[in-house]
């Protein structure tokens, strides 16, 4: 979207003639303002536009305009951003406009495989006790969580009995493991774990993505194994993204300390750090983590920051259970930034990206075609 179109959009907003999508774009951009933003223009009409946006959003913070344009220049930030045509934003409390062939978001869905191979579909199962296995009670709560409760000493139980919980595309689930550790499992993921942990360690196997809040136990380290790495902790909060279709395994630490191991590579993470293990070159590096974007899925959001279109669409495909195909002219490498609730229909993501004028989507059943 060029500067002329951006100015026309602001004029429409002031006049009250915006479509719902256009108004959403203007207002949500205003909600992303930074007090450190550099001025783009000093035209008086932008002062008026900013005040109109601020008033309609119902905020009461005092505006400051004039020479100190480091404060709340709504139109300036909007104009600058739209000139690049490669960003989209949506404010959480604003409802998105739906259109034909819209697709609902994912929900709490999973399949539990017991030690004897029996599979239990957890989607529509009533709450209450499901089964007793290896002196452990397995219960589904009214909130849709799977909870394991030990009924006997570990010595009386079968430590070789394993369960596996698997979420499909368009599903996620929360599990409370036998030691009290809580796990949030993202879409298209699986977790294999013993019904009763051994006396020396607590080891689970992950495919996909999960967030862990590990119960502290100095005597028994908690270990998360993926195909290419292993993470060892005593008690901490962390997230692992280990999808096979991603170029790297990302481990993000929120609390405590973790040790990441991958063959001959090792790293110790402190809170706020992230390890990145590249799957092709087998390199391990540690950097400061963007906790907002890494934890967005667990908090019910999509948060994209300088993220390429293909990466965004992989997340969209997992959560909405859709197939994504690309037309020959699709801008696969275009970088976007944005924020949208995962509770919204798929149109909330697609429609706002389309407003940049750089990408368009065709929805046919559960197939999304990406076009220029």
Description:
- The protein is α+β, with helices and mostly antiparallel strands and 372 residues long.
- The protein has 3 domains: 3-84, no CATH class; 107-289, Jelly Rolls, CATH 2.60.120; 294-371, 3-Layer(bab) Sandwich (Phage tail protein beta-alpha-beta fold), CATH 3.55.50.30.
- The chain is 19% helix and 35% strand.
- It is built from 7 helices and 24 strands.
- The chain has helices at 3-15, 20-30, 44-56, 74-84, 291-294, 309-320, 347-354; strands at 107-108, 111-113, 119-121, 128-133, 136-140, 145-150, 162-167, 171-176, 182-185, 189-194, 202-213, 222-225, 230-233, 237-242, 248-255, 258-262, 265-269, 273-278, 284-288, 301-308, 323-326, 335-341, 360-364, 367-371.
- The strands form 3 sheets. It has a 19-stranded mixed beta sheet that branches. It has a 3-stranded mixed beta sheet with strand order 21-24-23, with helices on one face.
- A hairpin with a 7-residue loop joins strand 10 (189-194) and strand 11.
- Helix 1 crosses helix 4 (74-84).
- The longest helix is centred in the first third of the chain and has 13 residues, at 3-15.
- It starts with a helix and ends with a strand.
- Residues 32-46 and 53-99 have low confidence and may be disordered.
Helix/strand layout:
Elements: H1 3-15, H2 20-30, H3 44-56, H4 74-84, E1 107-108, E2 111-113, E3 119-121, E4 128-133, E5 136-140, E6 145-150, E7 162-167, E8 171-176, E9 182-185, E10 189-194, E11 202-213, E12 222-225, E13 230-233, E14 237-242, E15 248-255, E16 258-262, E17 265-269, E18 273-278, E19 284-288, H5 291-294, E20 301-308, H6 309-320, E21 323-326, E22 335-341, H7 347-354, E23 360-364, E24 367-371
Pfam family, one: FecR
Organism: Mucilaginibacter gossypiicola
Domain FecR protein: 164-259
